[in-house]
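User: Could you walk me through two proteins back to back? I'd like the raw sequence and the structure tokens for each, with a short line separating them so I can tell where one ends and the next begins.

Assistant: Of course. Protein one, sequence then structure:
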Amino acid sequence: MTPRRISPSPAHGSDADVQRLQRILHHLPVVLFELDAETRLTLIEGYGLNQASSATAELVGKTAREISQMLTIPDFDATLRRLYAGESVEFTVGIGDEWFETRAQPIMGAKGRLEGAVGVTFNASARHRAQEALSLSEARYRAMIDNIEDGYYEVDLSGKFTSVNDALCRMLGYPAEELVSGQLRSFRSVTPSEDADRAQRAFNHVYKTGKPMRSIEGRARRSDGREIVVELSVSLRHDAHGAAAGFRGIVRDITDRKAVEEALAQRMVLLSVLEQVDQELSQTLELDKVLMVALNAASVLSSADLAFIGLVEGDAIRIVRSTSQTAGAVGRTLAMDHGVVGRAMRLRQGQYVPDVAQDKDYRPDVAETVSQIAVPLIVHDRLLGVLNVETTRRGQFTEATFEYVQMLTARIASAVENARLFEQNVGQLEELRKLYGQVTQLEQLKTDMIRIASHDLRSPLGIIVGYLDILTFDLEPVLSEEQIGYFDAMRRAAERIQRMSTEILSLERVNTLANQPRVTVSLNDLVLRTLVDYRDAARQKDINLITQLETQPLHVMADIVSLPEAIDNLVSNAIKYTPAGGFVTVKVARDGGQRAIVDVIDTGLGIREESQSRLFEPFYRVKSEETARIDGTGLGLYLVKRIIEQHGGEMHFRSTFGQGSQFGFTLPLAGESA
């Protein structure tokens, strides 16, 4: 930086002296100036002048007031008055973006008048900016501290407050000045003795170790005398030289949190009791034990002086379990309108009376009772009885107590209902056993009758059909067409009865199929054997009968009577419901795994969608204009499904009305798990 040099008047000395002074000032980081008696600037010289201040030369010859209008000089008038009064002054001068720290020494005459002044100034911009930054940082830090929700404190090494924020003042109910500079300066003034000692030990520990403590729990005393629970941190505070100066930390009011924690802890205890009650109630169905467990639990949960359980008997309540031998004694009967208990029963709602003296319905069971809780036992909207607890200690019952008694009552009600049902069921069990024996005998009798009836029908039916054939053959030449129709109708009816008896016998056999021996059979052989039986029937209806068999025979474990019958039923149905000129295809294939598939596909009438869900019900037949003339019993598909399921298989089908149907099943191959 090039020094700004202003030449003085000759009165100030020789040129050599001036040049020597300039050289000295050129190497010193200061600026020298001189004022005359009128505070007019007569000299300004030195290295420290800012190069940017090109107007510095214009200052020479101007008075201090004129200069103050060109530069920034805070509190100029006060500074100037002190200078005229003969005092040395220190002030700051702002030139552009630079700041100079200035000191001026007055030169006083014999009469005490100002004859001039000399002074020095040096560039203090860096320090000024640092101070501004520090002030800004402190302001921001203070604003942050003042705006946090938690309290903030600073104390010295003796424990006296040196700084607090607004949140701490609100927390304690004191203004800041009373804590920092008033009578309450020590933290002990707002802390109970025991907690103050704990805090002091924390201060000592932090001082010795230098390590902060993040959480210390204790109590603080508010201005209104109320104590709050607080959590505070402690860390060491240092002065500008790095020496320990005190402590600082955050204070948080955790009174509400502690209350919640305590309530939660109490709730966990009570829930544990309820869990234990559940376990004990689940292990017994004896009514007396249920009542004992319930009453003990009610006494524990409520700490009641009197507790009893009453059950509804007719139009009254009879006390069946009680903790008292006098008031609420076992066997005592209460009317349905008896006091708070009666109100709970009448309204079907739990009743909590904090002060029985204020309740018009209260009836004294215990003279000293203060509070009462009565909750009805209700299951499936049916009133079973009531649980009643009373206490002689004011404040013993709370809303939480009422809640837990209600929770307990819900469990008791279900347990009582189950115990009562169990007692009834025990009495009915023997009757049910007797009835079961009778039903078993009747079922066996029914089965025997069906089997006998179906079997015995076949012989007379054979006789009837035989004689019908003889009569038809003998009388056909003389019978009219209408009379021949009568004979045909009788033959069809006899054949239908014969088919029905055959299917009933088959169904009866399927019911015992699990006990029938199984052999390995080839599905290809079973299908070919069935198709041989239906070649003529298909030819008579002009139906094309097609087979698609697996090249390698597929073997299954089967009952040699029922499985062929199932295939026979599917092929018979397909031919029956397929019009002339149609196709019936029987396929045997492997599903790619360890199961065989048999499908019977026709191009017949098909089944309407609304009828498909009932196809496998016994005796169900699709009723439509197209099937009205086709005979059937409605047992065929039901019988097939039972047979396939008894063989460990599954049925499947799909059908489109007017286009045809596909019925089939899958079976596990021989040697595979069914």
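----
Protein two, same layout:
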Amino acid sequence: MQTSHEFPYLTFIELIRVLARTLDIKYSNKALDDKAYERMIDPRQIHSLAKECIDEPLKRCIGQPGAEIVARIFTRMRAEYAQLVAQVGADGVTRADLLPLLLKGFFKQYLVDLLNEIHTQFGGPSPVTMVTPRDNTVDIVLTWVSKHESEWELFYKSLDKEWKDRLSAWRRLEGDIPSSQSIQLLPQASNSQDQPSINWERLQVLLLIARGVEALKRQSSMGAFFEAVRLSLWGAVDSFDLSTSIKTLQSKHGSQVSSVLKDIVRVHDGLEGDTQKPEQLQGELRLSLDRIRNILSSIDSGYTSQYWLDWHEARWHLLSGDLKTANDFYRKAAEDCLFRAGENQQLIINESLVVAAAQSRPDKVFLKHLKNACITFGYDIPSVTDPTPSNKFNDTVEQWEIEQWKAQFYRLFPQQGFFPGCSVEVGTPRIGPLIITDMNKIKPDYKNPDRTIKIGDIRQKRMPQLVWFAEIEDFDATNNLLKKGASVDCFSESDDSPILMALQALNVTNVPFSSLDRRFFDLISQYPHTPETLNKRTQKKRLLPIISAVETGQPEVVEKVLAMGADPNGRGKTDEQTALNVCLKYIGYIKCPAKFMSDHREVKFSPAALDSIRRYLAGVYGHTLAEQKRAIEAREKHPRYGQFRQKILEIMIGRINEYMSLESMRQIAGILIDAGADVNAEHRSPLAGYTPLMLAAELNERKLFEHMLVQGGDLKKTYVDPRTARAVDCWEIANYFNSYEVSTVLTDIAPYWRTSGG
């Protein structure tokens, strides 16, 4: 476990622990203490602990409306804090020095927002009075309640002595701070048979927030923080700049290492990966690294720059041809740079990914930690979307990612940048399309029908020959292999299967266009398949048989695939959609082709869209989302690119309209719903949290909407509007999109829905 003084920024688990302690909802959660100082942590664990230690206890204590406000602001704060840590370095700064700056320059605004939102939603004392330094915040709330709740005095008189003494202690300037449990139990404290009418939801929210504010106010170091909060609530303009203030602190550390400044510059410039190195440079840089290490070890703040030294040690060993030792130093640098190094974090992590993947046996433990760090700080998105925290490598990293990281080795570290006489051999990069110059050379082996072959001239891919001949649509070879006993339950190294290849041949949406030759599907679907085969998706593109079946536009194909054992709720495509969601999107595109155009233009720079490009282009643009974005921006500067893209989209929508019809796609949607498709399944697109039921409401698909309601459609579900942070339900969606037929349904059922508790 790291000690808190070793890195300046608080971890995300520390933030959760601070909030939980401040609001007295931590209870005895040992995980918060055990993991407080872990920097390379599974981001799913952060979300899990936030839900377990913040969201759920708050709902039990103060009810859902108040809990949602706190949770929403805290979630936003964590996301923006990740950006801050990733951009603003704090090398040379101690935590004790940094924390006051963070309180004033970062955390202040979130308390201001919380107090304002709580006041807007629930009323109560003015937010400014809640942070008055010499007044008890809990007393301020109880005084306000006694004036605005007409039956408060009646309630107070009904309390026994113990509760009256407790309330009196809460109100004293140096009295007790109420516990969250006491606040939760307060409504049941009355001894009267006739319960006084009090807005308990409001009172409990105000008391818990007051409890948290008072707990912070009683810490001696928080005076300047609350003064800044108070001024901000008054509307004062704050000229404080956090980044500048941190740089001022860093300058003190810089003066301590001034004696080796020339060595630092020499090492930084000399170890650039792509510059040609003279003969003597290797030895000179070794001496400089040793001098820097000696100086850092002799000063108190030297540990704050250790990551930088380990990073450049790693580069020196790498350019000397020692890949293993370089990996060891990258491992040290990568952990120590987190919550310290600002923009250098991403540089170190990217180099570390490439080096760890390029080992003769990839360093999977290190790769898993690096991937988690990428997700935590927003450099990447999860490739495995299971929200459950896991220590297993395959639950965090997919195999294709290792190949892409490794493939970037010579781009980051070209051979001309190594020290003279030194080199590293990591093999042929597996990037770009699979190139096959003469497919006629590949002949079927009927004596060994289940034989696995290698495809490709430069890089190769392993696959059963049945998959190959189905993919290239050689019907005779496919038919003869099946007659000879080839198993349909087989997969390529990227998990392509014969049935998937047959469905892809029928896929209307593919570019380049598929042949739409149904013979392969009719042939292969005659054979029994295992559930695994029907429900396995490919690794990078996440092609899934049931979704490919939907994209044929043929209801009978979808029915057949379901009858063969496909799960209607399987997730596929790069953004993890269900077949029903995909089907509804195509209904929308057929009804409004302009929507197809706008959807495919507007999402190009979203993380999910950039990840999709990375998966489809196999590392051509690099391995980071930022590299995908830069490549696309450069491509769009070409004067004819916009015309070319527009033409492609027009051709695609034309093909969809030619081979898909509203009638057939509505029929497919109905088939999926009847087969058990989850109409309440949450998706990332078109918006995070959107469900098929919401999409049907948007598209004004009345019959499908009614069908979904019969099958358990949940009108209580909402998604959060990213612009306003408001929860939006189907009523608002139907109203916004002028879906008059669905609005009629909702109006008709509203009285019954609300009567039944909906």
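The chain has a mean pLDDT of 91.

Let me know if you want the two compared in more detail.
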